[in-house]
């Protein structure tokens, strides 16, 4: 039964609203007929809407709500191989499989993303330097295309597989995926925290120590200047083994039942997060972090997803929303990290949460974001008139260094800079046009970027 | 498409020869502007203006016929102008004439021309624009009103009442579209030094197209429905609204 109603959609950054019709379709639809019927105004898949901007919306067109497809299809506890429908969320998988001793192999900063979205954005986590990104664990998926449902693996249809991993949903509707879960002894993390006084110090520390930990990420004080520029709090962690735990943690070592404390109301005026409050927040965060703490035991939910404690935390940025910006530049281009922090501080552009990490090697996803190097993520409230040009300047620095920005967070990169950042974009477009010549599958992002 | 900062890629200007519209395009040309349609009644002047716009950067410009006094055609002309861009991200409604208050007062035809050009025609066009934006699911509309329409004075009540009508109509539409992703911003400049006003002598609080453009864009990006330029007019007009009519009719400006 097809239901059709109009919704106003935005990404998590809440900047670019557009009206689309919601479609709830059964998985076993006659996809060629269905997609052809939608050819005029187009269609895009949408899961939990956590991409930051316009990737999962199509103004004036339709979106397929994939969250109704959330069933586990098959699980082999001996190997950890899971076949699951694309609308299942990482949150759901963590709750369902932690008791059996399994964890998702890659989780971004929120667990409220769907499998389909995680593949389309090829999301990464704090373990990229060790394990790679989400699609590195995906072995197989079913993709609905205008020509029918295609089963993709690295051996069958490798081109389409590589275009779909990180392909922003433009190659088809991902119906289900087979992936390998990670075996764990507990849902606790053994965490080392180190506070550094400068950017150089944290860069050096990450270079020398990251390889000893599965997870590593540095929170950077975007407001520190001068000799403190880039001072950071580095957290490095591994899944805690049972032998690491003691006392109350041993009562239910595999429990994963995080609760949200409250939902942020939709009444924050834009401007609550301004340069003063952001500075105060960054200062407090830095000061309250331990100078050095080794082997602290934290629950996985608070380690991976501290923001998920508050539902709709994006509302605190007010109605104007915020812009996330994340780039990666190759190793050896540390100056870009330094210069971009200087540029922000010179322009008094306060980034509320600034995160630095090292990426390991890239995969074969044609427009997948991660590549070996340093990645820096910023989030800034929309407001200051200088921001658009500031980001353009950052883009130029990133291109110069041979890097790129993350499409799942982008809402503003220019078409020609995008081409300079993704050398395999032409190849990607060739595959998309061969599978969907009339471009039924499109999004506001694809129209904005001309892809 | 608009980007996260509400910078448009495609803009349609209804009243394409407007100096203020050009100043707006110049501002937007620093960002993601790709294609502009200039729609207006005089194709020769539009072509000149089109050259100026394409000089602003790598911007594709097309001109289209648009005559607000031709009420039988204006809806179709608006539709056609909008069909020339892949997405209608921003429509600037800038059509308008000043008229000549003194001689027009005794000329019914001239009164009809000012009111049709400044109010009825743009209102019809705006209705067409809104319908299109409803179909495409989003869009911004920038309506060039005037301070003259917020407190109609003896010395230019024909122009003033035409802008009063447009201003009220546009804000009404803004209310009607509340809760959708189509946004209307009404800009109320004071005396702007443009070709339209070059025959008049400058007055206090006068402004320039560039300043109007900067304020209008800032207002639009902040989600404001009303933008006064300069901002101080808001207070001035608030005061003027409270003076008795016996004084109002004797105002020297």
Mind explaining what this structure looks like?
The complex is a heterodimer of chains A (451) and B (253). With 451 residues, chain A is of the alpha+beta class. Chain A folds into 2 domains: 68-184, Uridine Diphospho-n-acetylenolpyruvylglucosamine Reductase, domain 3, CATH 3.30.465.10; 188-415, Alpha-Beta Plaits (2-Layer Sandwich). Chain A has 13 helices and 21 strands. Chain A has helices spanning 31-37, 90-97, 115-120, 128-131, 158-164, 199-209, 275-288, 300-304, 334-346, 387-400, 415-421, 425-435, 444-449, and strands at residues 4-9, 18-23, 43-46, 62-65, 72-76, 81-85, 102-103, 138-145, 148-153, 173-180, 182-183, 188-196, 215-220, 232-239, 262-263, 292-299, 310-311, 322-329, 355-359, 373-381, 404-405. In chain A, the strands form 5 sheets. In chain A, strands 16-12-14-13-19-20-18-21 form an 8-stranded antiparallel sheet. A 5-stranded antiparallel sheet of chain A has the order 5-6-10-8-9. In chain A, strands 1-2-4-3 form a 4-stranded mixed sheet, with no helix packed on it. In chain A, strand 5 (72-76) and strand 6 (81-85) form a beta hairpin. In chain A, helix 9 (334-346) runs antiparallel to helix 10. The longest helix of chain A is centred in the middle third of the chain and has 14 residues, at 275-288. Chain A is globular. Chain A starts with a strand and ends with a helix. With 253 residues, chain B is an alpha/beta fold. Chain B has one domain: NAD(P)-binding Rossmann-like Domain (Rossmann fold, 3-Layer(aba) Sandwich). Helix content of chain B is 43%, strand content 15%. Chain B is built from 9 helices and 7 strands; from the N terminus they run βαβαβαβααβαβαβαα. Chain B has a 7-stranded parallel sheet, sandwiched between helices. Chain B is globular. At the A-B interface, strand 2, helix 10 and helix 13 of A face helix 5 of B.
